[in-house]
Design goal:
Strand order of the largest sheet: 1-2-3-7-6-5-4
Oligomer: single chain
Structural class: alpha+beta
Number of domains: 1
Strand content: 25-35%
Radius of gyration: 20 Å
Number of strands: 7
Helix content: 25-40%
Shape: globular
CATH topology: Protein Transport Mog1p, Chain A
Amino acid sequence: MRTHPAVTNAVALIVLSIATCTCHAASPKACDLLSAQAAASLLPGTVGAPQDFGGILCVYMAKGGASAASLSLTDAPAAASINIYNAVKASYGKSATESIPGLGEQNFLFVQPSNKNGLTVLYHQKIVVLNAQVPMTPTVKSALIQTMKQILPRL
């Protein structure tokens, strides 16, 4: 039995489409990566529902609205990724206090007088920023690092 060439081409196209979809799965959204539990570890008290801003920014407000935790994701194409990362780091100036060993390709912890503190990581062509709008304490610093360690493998 002979197969019509159009059927063969259609099958090949379907197989190619499935392979392409499998290889290029959508990147996770910020709110898929930052759980309420992780946000609560960064903030005092309990947190409200996440606010999703286009999949690239997720914000949790503490009940009462005095503080917030957020995660933002920015694509950084390979050729420009280090330049984008360096520009982001430079924008924090002296607030960029230290690097955490073994976390992504590059990273810096930032502490600002406005209590907008966080951790920025360059990881697999993404710039990942985890913020906690609270005073920086050893507990908050540890929670930022632990939360980021949970997020990165899921990108």
